[in-house]
Amino acid sequence: MIVQLAAERPPPAEAQHCAALSLNITIMADSETLEFVTEHERILQEIESTDTACVGPTLRSIYDDQPNAHKRFMEKLDARIRNHDREIEKMCNFHHQGFVDAITELLKVRADAEKLMGQVTDTNRRLQEAGRDVRAQTEEVIRCRIQQRNMATTVEKLQLCLPVLEMYSKLKEQLDSKRYYAALKTMEQLEKVYIPRVSHYRFCQIMAENLPRLREEIKDISMSDLKDFLESIRKHSDKVGETAMRQAQQHRTFNSAVAKQLHIGHYSKPVYSLSRHTNTHLSNGLWSNDDTGDDEDADEEILTAQDLVDFSPVYRCLHIYSVLGDRETFENYYRKQRKKQARLVLQPQANMHETVEGYRRYFNQIVGFFVVEDHILHATRGLVTRAFTDELWNMALSKIIAVLRTHSSYCEDPDLVLELKNLIVICADTLQGYGFPVSRLFDLLFEVRDQYNETLLKKWAAVFREIFESDNYSPIPVETEEEYKLVTSRFPFHDPEIEKQDFPKKLPMSQSVPQIYTQVKEFIYASLKFSESLHRSSTEIDDMLRKSTNLLLTRTLSSCLQNLTKKPHIGLTELVQIIINTTHLEQACKYLEEFITNITNISPETVHTTRLYGLSTFKDARHAAEGEIYTKLNQKIDEFIQLADYEWSMAESDGRASGYLMDLINFLRSTFQVFTHLPNNNNDHASMSGKVAQTACMSACKHLSTSLMQMLLDSELKQISMGAIQQFNLDVMQCELFASSEPVPGFQGDTLQLAFIDLRQLLDLFMVWDWSTYLADYGQPNSKYLRVNPATALALLEK
Q1: Hey, which residues does 287 pair with through a beta bridge?
Q2: In sequence order, what E strands does 227-282 have?
Q3: Where in this chain does the record put each Exocyst complex component EXOC6/Sec15 N-terminal domain (predicted)?
């Protein structure tokens, strides 16, 4: 390049010498340059042919040569770049026209391609739409074909099953119309022809399983005339027994009325129309009552056993078996069947104890059974014997007693137990008239009496609970003289001071007291009802009444009172009223003694007379109520304490006591005023009421002091300021003022204030900060801070 530039620029004349010199220098430089050119060519070829990761050492070799070598390399590199650019430009010029022609052709094809793409897309869309409908129709056709095949299969199976169902329906119609022979033929066809065709179906298997049972039913129904007769007896036994017992009850009522008119203690033995012992004999061995002059149903025909039961089948069968010489077989079969029926009659219904009708039906069947047997015994010759009827009766009597013991224990209604007792008495009187021994039935009545008393106690427990729940636990207001007399007629209340007061006035007890007293008397009347018709002596009745009344007072009423005092809704006012009520009920026990004495005419001074234990019952209830007063009062104090919201980090106190504590003190004042209404009409009651009030007040103050102390020593309380101590001191001062105000009279000196002495000494120690005195006098009996525990003081000091 230098040579070329020098050649192009003609040197002037005066510079020829310099040009010659430059040419020499250039020739020398060219010789050196050729070496560099060869080296640079090698480096460029190496750069072009090797990987870019290995270029570093190659480039470093350039800088390791002479100082200006890299400049010459850069010039060589630029020349190589320009050479490559010219080659690229030549190649581009050579291919440019072909590239332009290709682009032009491509632009022409693009329009056709877009048009073809649109046509293909539209064709695809129309094809998809047409195919969707075809697919849906194809699926519908497949579904219809499946349904058609299923319907055809169902019709085919139904055609196989319909004859079986028709034959079974025909069988049911034949059984309902009692065409038993045709029914058997139908069953044979079902088993041999129809059921095997469709035996794999469940309903056919059930039919096949029912066919043997249907055959047994047909066989049982097709019994002889004798079995029909026995069935007829079983059906009419309850009606026969009902008639016999109704007539026995009528005679009993009639004889009782005659006995009262003649002042006779015991009525004569009743006579029954169904018994053979009546006045008029009938040719068939049954008897009727001709004396119906005073009966209101005198115009009605009195039914007998023969009127209710057709005995002709047994007569006819007995005659036939006797003629054939097989009478013994008939007798054995009849007695065997009657024993079975006796067991069935003696088997009670599971729910017999629920209604009196269940018991009445049971007794009617038993009485009817033995009335029929008595008729058979006397109307036939040797079919049954007295020994056979006695054996049946002894078996029945044991079963009856066991059944009545079991079912009477399930009875919870005293009226139902009383009805059961009346039914037992009527049943015993009825069967006794036919010559059956019934002494064991009367012995059973003593057990039923105990059950009757238990049901009465349960019933009166519910009555007492209802009375207590409906009571308002406030004194009875009396507006007029008539209201006062109405209350005193129901309850023996006598108080000269209240009687002197003008109307309106209030009686100390609440409404539940006369109600409880009235219900106790009703209980005694209910207990008395059971002794009717038992022919017991007055002494036995008196003993029974007193024992049952004692159970009512000591168990039932006592339990109700205990539960009442523990109910959460019973407050302090109600508990105070309960104490008043129990006091008046305790005073009324002597009037209950007189009430029983007036009923039985047995003096309470008699040696064997049972005394009433009501006094201890009401004392225990009163003590329980007092205990609940103390408990509920402490619970109420805890509720107020929970409202305390001390700011333990306050700098100074508010200068007045906390609101929650003032509310608590006001509550305690009003509560202790209620205790002034406790009965104090005599010295015993006055001392009792004062003791209850003092104990409650002392318990409340101690509990309040303990709660306040626990609040100071609470482990969750970490820090207390002196301002909080001062505020707490103001609250304790209010408690001490309350204790010194004598909220309940009767405390000696500052006895009540001693409940807060522990708090007072502890707070004084911190308010005065008199630690030197505390430490100096510690352990001394006359120490100023004797009640301050070191651990308590240390715990508070740390806070």
Answers
A1: 281
A2: 280-281
A3: 76-245
pLDDT tens digits, 113-140: 888 898 999 999 888 888 888 888 888 9
Percent of the chain with pLDDT over 70: 79
Tell me phi and psi for residue 290, to 5 degrees: -90, -15
| Contact between residue 267 and residue 259 where contact means Cβ atoms under 8 Å apart | yes
Give helix 356-379 / helix 225-262 axis angle, nearest 10°: 110
For residue 306, what pLDDT is reported? 63
Provide the pLDDT for residue 218.
60
Q: What is the mean pLDDT of residues 614-637?
A: 77
Could you give the angle at which helices 414-433 and 439-470 cross, rounded to 10 degrees?
160
Cα angle 680-681-684, degrees, rounded to a multiple of 5:
65
Torsion region of 14: left, alpha or beta (phi above 0 gives left; psi -120 to 50 gives alpha):
alpha
Q: 226 φ, ψ to 5°?
A: -65, -40
Residue 307 identity (one-letter amino acid): D
What is the C-alpha to C-alpha distance for residues 551 and 457, in angstroms, rounded to an integer?
Answer: 8
Which residue is listed with tokens 């007896």? 233
- What are the phi and psi torsion angles at 89 (to 5°)? -65, -40
Half-sphere exposure of 306 (CA within 13 A, CB side): 17
Beta bridge partners of residue 476, listed in sequence order: 507
Q: Which long-range contacts (CB under 8 A, 24 or more apart) does 280-287 make?
A: 282/306, 284/311, 284/379, 285/375, 285/378, 285/379, 286/375, 286/379
Could you please state the CATH topology (level 3) that the domain comprising 644-798 is classified under. Answer: Methane Monooxygenase Hydroxylase; Chain G, domain 1 (1.20.58)
Please give the share of the chain, as a percent, with pLDDT higher than 90: 2
Reduced to 3 states (helix: H, G, I; strand: E, B; else coil), residue 288 is strand
What are the CB-based long-range contacts (under 8 Å, 24+) for 740-744? 743/668, 743/669, 743/672, 743/697, 744/672, 744/675, 744/690, 744/693, 744/694, 744/696, 744/697
Predicted TM-score of the model (pTM): 0.55
Reading the block at residue 474, the tokens are: 């406030």
**Which amino acid is present at 241?**
G
Q: In the 8-state DSSP scheme, what is residue 557?
A: I
> What confidence tens digit (pLDDT) does each residue in 86-101 have?
888 888 888 888 888 8
Q: Which sequence spans correspond to the domains of the chain?
A: 201-257+306-436, 456-624, 644-798
pLDDT number for residue 144: 93
Of 470, 482, 474, the closest CA to residue 506 belongs to 474
Report, at the CATH architecture level, how domain 456-624 is classified. Orthogonal Bundle (1.10)
Confirm if 163 and 169 have CB atoms less than 8 A apart. no
Q: What is the dihedral of CA 10, 16, 18, 23, to 10 degrees?
A: 70
At 304, the pLDDT band (50, 70, 90 cuts) reads low
Q: Which residue has the higher pLDDT, 156 or 313?
A: 156
Residues in the chain: 799
Q: What is the pLDDT of residue 200?
A: 83
Exposed, middle or buried by CB within 10 Å (0-12, 13-18, 19+), for 412?
Answer: middle
pLDDT at 721 over 50: yes
Do the Cβ atoms of 443 and 398 come closer than 8 Å? no
